[in-house]
Design goal:
This protein is α/β, with parallel strands linked by helices. The chain has a domain of about 80 residues: Dna Ligase, domain 1. It is about 35% helix and about 30% strand. It has a six-stranded mixed β-sheet, sandwiched between helices. Helix 6 runs antiparallel to helix 8. The chain is globular. The C terminus is likely disordered.
Length: about 425
């Protein structure tokens, strides 16, 4: 089995770390999943690494499980990056076309995107993505891909996505300690969107909402392009904590109550329904109200969806996305969550599942695998055709190395010098 046709992805989440190993089989359109794992995370809070040693051990464990299933070792993987410290900025780039005949070539496009990311960054920030939203060639505006067109002056509007330098370095250090080389680092909501959103949904207008353990991320698409993205500091883990406090029980018991008895809406719950805690944990006793649990869940989810609505109002798209919303992440598995989201957001809502795979599909047919599935699809897309769906993305590490004389390479060299 040639390693050239193997792709791996690692999603470091607040609650769980997931890994997928996939193989590209000649003659098959879809990637074949050959290895999967999901284990509880340690050393991360709200999407931000707090203990490199713990998260490195988590990565090692997750990779070992996937490797045993696949029957092959992996040395490279595509990682996610998230956390509430992610920031977004709109930027512009302008260049003169290089060729004498005025035809736009790949070098012109790369130069104009590179020009757009020469923005003033705080000392503690680093660029993760520079995504082209639209181009302008002389008097022609709203161009998706100017390659091969002719003109004199090329402009681009981009979205520059920044993360804290500490977070990038911590992910890199944890990966190095785990013996895994980072092929690419992809923003969580962008990766999730790749695995669950269709081209038609992106054309019509859609919001992808990823409810993770510590954060909720979203990505809004319209006319095939990324319109807006954000990461909110609330997630499904906050619901668990609320239940634990409200019922005066452990977080572990609260999590099971949430998943087995919880509901996002209270109207269908009988106020007389009770939950026997001793059936969940022999160390617990007493009966708690299922209606009260649903009240706690509904209140916190409504808060999350109100924050999403606030982001949609910010860009003038509240209630104006024909393809509606797609819910993913572990929090999306909550009973009746689509009904509550529909009421708050005023949009058609569905729960999203990863697509584009063959192989052991039952292992990844789950909303919580949207990000890790999207990561491996992202790698495959950029391997085959970097211009698919009109979206051009320069890898942060390639772009940053070009701009600063190899920042990421320097980081890796530092780790090699000081780590065992």
């Amino acid at each position: 089995m040639s390693k050239d046709f193997i792709l791996a992805s690692i999603d470091i989440g607040t609650s769980n770390t997931r890994t997928i190993i996939a193989q590209q089989i000649k003659g098959e359109e879809n990637l074949r999943v050959i290895g999967v794992s999901s284990i509880p995370s340690a050393g991360i809070r709200r999407g931000v690494i707090t203990d490199v040693e713990d998260i490195a051990k988590t990565i090692i464990s997750a990779v070992e499980v996937a490797e045993r299933m696949a029957g092959i070792p992996i040395k490279n993987a595509i990682f996610n990056i998230g956390g509430s410290d992610i920031e977004f900025a709109n930027s512009k780039g302008v260049i003169a076309i290089g060729r004498a005949d005025g035809e736009v070539c790949e070098d012109d496009i790369n130069r104009v995107i590179t020009e757009s990311q020469t923005i003033q960054l705080p000392m503690n920030k680093e660029i993760v993505h520079v995504i082209a939203k639209k181009y302008r060639l002389d008097d022609q505006d709203n161009i998706k891909d100017p390659l091969g067109m002719k003109g004199v002056r090329l402009e681009v509007d981009t979205m520059v996505i920044e993360s804290s330098s500490a977070q990038v370095k911590n992910i890199s250090k944890a990966a190095y300690q785990a013996g895994i080389e980072i092929d690419d680092l992809v923003l969580e909501p962008l990766a999730a969107g790749v695995s669950v959103l269709t081209k038609k949904q992106k054309e019509l207008g859609v919001v992808m909402i990823n409810i993770g353990g510590g954060t909720t991320s979203l990505a809004v698409y319209e006319e095939g392009e990324l319109l807006h993205t954000a990461i909110l500091p609330l997630g499904a883990g906050h619901i668990t904590n609320d239940i634990a406090i409200g019922l005066r029980t452990s977080v572990e018991v609260a999590e099971r109550i949430k998943l087995e008895y919880g509901s996002a809406v209270i109207r269908d719950i009988d106020k007389k329904d009770g939950i026997n805690l001793s059936l969940i944990d022999s160390r617990e006793d007493g009966i708690v109200s299922r209606y009260h649990v649903a009240e706690i869940i509904e209140a916190r989810l409504e808060e999350i969806f109100m924050l999403v609505q606030k982001e949609l109002k910010l860009i003038g798209k509240a209630g104006l996305l024909p393809a509606g919303g797609v819910l993913v992440g572990g929090g999306a598995k909550m009973m009746h969550i689509n009904e509550l989201a529909k009421e708050v957001l005023g949009l058609p809502i569905q729960v999203g599942f990863p697509t584009g795979f063959g192989g052991i599909l039952d292992k990844v047919d789950d909303p919580s695998f949207a990000t890790v599935a999207g990561l491996v699809l992202w790698g495959h897309q950029h391997q085959v055709d970097e211009k698919r769906e009109g979206l051009r993305n320069i890898k942060a590490f390639d772009l940053f190395s070009h701009q600063t004389g190899g920042t990421f390479d320097k980081v890796k060299n530092i780790f090699k010098r000081f780590l065992p």
